[in-house]
Amino acid sequence: GGGGGSEAPRGFVTLNWRRVLESEEGLRAVPRVERGALPLHHLRLMHVQLSALRNGFIVARLLGRALVLPPTLCSCELGFWPKHIGGRCVAGDHKTLALPYVCPIDHYLDPSALANSPFAHRERPFLDNNRTAPALLASRVTVLAGAPAAAA
User: Fold this and answer.
1) Cα–Cα distance measured from residue 59 to residue 77, given in angstroms and rounded to the nearest whole number
2) Phi/psi of residue 115, each to 5°?
3) Max CA pair span of the chain
4) Rounded CA separation 31/84 (Å)
5) How far apart are CA 141 and CA 14, in angstroms?
6) pLDDT in tens, 39-85
7) Which of 30, 102, 118, 28 is nearest to 69 (CA)?
8) What is the C-alpha to C-alpha distance for residues 27 and 73, in angstroms, rounded to an integer?
């Protein structure tokens, strides 16, 4: 799955997601929240990840490549109505859900809008699929966004 973009991509872009998740202290923390309160820890985590995702889409589009979607984390099972979440930040009947968890794409993006967008992408398991060409997996270039310029 995954589409977007009007032309076939010339390759793929992945993000160093570990670096994104380690960019701020306590980003993966899951404190208790009062029923119906805004889970600010979750909103902060999503803000950081969506900012990185936006930057990844822009870089991929500028390079004529498709972005391989990263394993985005949710630290609260927010759903559509925050009043349903309890102190552990999960709906009452999901007692075994471990937080944070890799959340489905429709928890943070609109899949149909993404499919119709100009941003080429591939679903998260694309690089783990046994049908993905080994040559593709072996070819890799690392780019560090925001790396400091060398001293003159």
Assistant:
1) 30
2) -65, -30
3) 60
4) 17
5) 10
6) 889 999 999 999 999 999 999 999 888 999 999 999 988 765 666 67
7) 102
8) 10
Contact 73, 49 (CB under 8 A): yes
Percent helix / strand / coil, the chain, rounded to 5: 30, 10, 60
Question: Alpha-carbon distance 68 to 89, whole Å?
Answer: 29
The 3-state DSSP class for residue 57 equals helix
Q: How many CB atoms lie within 10 A of CB 71?
A: 12
How many separate helices (H) and strands (E) can be counted in the chain? 4, 5
* Residue 45 dihedral angles phi and psi, to the nearest 5°: -60, -45
Taking the C-alpha atoms of residue 112 and residue 110, their distance in angstroms, rounded to an integer, is 6
Q: pTM above the 0.85 mark?
A: no
Beta bridge partners of 73: 102
- CA-nearest of 70, 67, 72, 71 to 121 is 67
